[in-house]
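Hi F.,

I've been meaning to write this up properly since the lab meeting, where we talked about keeping a consistent format for the predictions we share between groups. The idea is simple: the sequence comes first, exactly as it goes in, then the structure tokens exactly as they come out, then a line or two of notes. No screenshots and no reformatting. I'm using this chain as the first example so we have something concrete to point to.
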Amino acid sequence: MSGDAAALGPWAPLWVTLKVALWATVLGGAAGIGAGWAMARRRFRGQEVLDALLLLPMVLPPTVLGYYLIVLVGRRGALGAWLDRWFGIQLIFTWQGAALAAALVSFPLVYKAARAAFEDIEPHVAEAARTLGARDYQVFWRVLLPLARRGIGAGLMLGFARAMGEFGATLMVAGNLPGRTQTLSVAIYEAVQAGRDAEALWMTGLVSAVCVVLLVAAGRLLAPGHG
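Output, unedited:
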């Protein structure tokens, strides 16, 4: 266990969970916002199939996603071998690997919310900005993104909550190393298996409380008339 984790003691899983969920939201959020904007921008042949693929992590069993990630970023995987050979980076059994797995499962929530938010913006708004000389990236940053902020914000909150609760994919990719990769979900499972009911109870209560707060906040962002 690292020095920081040892100092945190029983709070170490919470620290790991927050770190993993934060980075997962950053990664999944950036990808989800970009994909949502691209899919809302125009219609094209095969869009429904691509949309289904982007939403696939939402319905696939987490263990299947974890297996795909192991195949991809494992030491013998196409991307994992390249990262190890050229940069000495290994993602398996690390909190960074857990963050990548959590980002994958939280991505569809951000993508779906971002796409809906961008599609709600009237097309003439972007066209007016282009008429005034704004380039595509300026239209995105200065016009579309601010107008879609409520939907995107709600998606990011839902993505963070999903990343906090992720279990299967993160366990397969990052394992269960106390103080390093052990998140609250994994710690709860371990506590239940070991018969430490009081420990499991306070951890489940903590996760539940945080998720309720995030769901309420996301709902208020999406409520009609919210400024």
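Notes:
The CA atoms of residues 188 and 202 lie 9 Å apart.
The two ends are 45 Å apart (CA to CA).

If this format works for you, I'll send the rest the same way.

G.
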